[in-house]
């Protein structure tokens, strides 16, 4: 399997990109793969011509499974789980809970977490985004307390088992890791640290940093 990833990034984006999600899932599912690195500068991907045939939106990641092309990190995670039979329950109700929490991360958390990240990144250079930061943080406050309470009672998003829903949720939460927002939710933070301590994540992030040519810990 081929997976399209970044091999260069502006420093501000180290550790935030969505290729981490696919690579982590591949490691957890024990699927062999090769990476195809793409360069990203301040204005996005530098080599668009060829990659546009793989992903018409020119976004990373994408996978090529023996000619079967798939884009969008959520779809990729679910495909890898289904393909390997790992990180997803076999029964329909259990699977639906994985879908539920993966979609929750993408639809209820990330739309507000990303603007907070970019507001902090751009600062005074983008007053509009800076002005919307308190509103986005307030919206996150409608979801994070319930997630924190849930994780106080169980180890992972759907219960005792680690699934692709956790990969998605943790990677979305990482968008807030350098803000003050998550400090109000100790069980979310313990959950994130527990998941990021998994050998597959450590291996993924180490390889990610090596591919970017940055010091160990730079993408933490």
Tell me what the structure shows.
The protein is of the alpha+beta class and 220 residues long. The protein has 2 domains: 2-86 and 200-212, Glutaredoxin; 92-197, Glutathione S-transferase Yfyf (Class Pi), Chain A, domain 2. It is 53% helix and 11% strand. The chain has 9 helices and 5 strands; from the N terminus they run βαββαββααααααα. Strands 3-2-1-4-5 form a 5-stranded mixed β-sheet, covered by helices on one side. Helix 1 runs antiparallel to helix 7, helix 1 (19-29) crosses helix 9 and helix 3 runs antiparallel to helix 7 (164-173). The longest helix is centred in the middle third of the chain and has 31 residues, at 92-122. The protein is globular. The two termini are 26 Å apart.
Low-confidence stretches: none
Query: What is the terminal-to-terminal distance?
Result: 26 Å
Major beta-sheet overview: 5 strands, mixed
CATH architecture of the largest domain: Up-down Bundle
Question: What are the secondary-structure elements, in order, as H or E?
Answer: EHEEHEEHHHHHHH
Beta fraction: 5-15%
Give the C-alpha Rg. Answer: 17 Å
Largest sheet: spatial strand order:
3-2-1-4-5
Proportion of helical residues? 40-55%
| Secondary structure tally: strands | 5
Shape: globular
- CATH fold title of the largest domain: Glutathione S-transferase Yfyf (Class Pi), Chain A, domain 2
Number of domains: 2
Mean pLDDT: 96
Which class of secondary structure composition applies to the elements?
alpha+beta
Q: What is this structure, in a nutshell?
A:
The protein is of the alpha+beta class and 220 residues long. It has helices at residues 19-29, 48-51, 73-84, 92-122, 127-140, 144-153, 164-173, 186-196, 199-212; strands at residues 2-8, 34-41, 44-45, 62-65, 68-71.
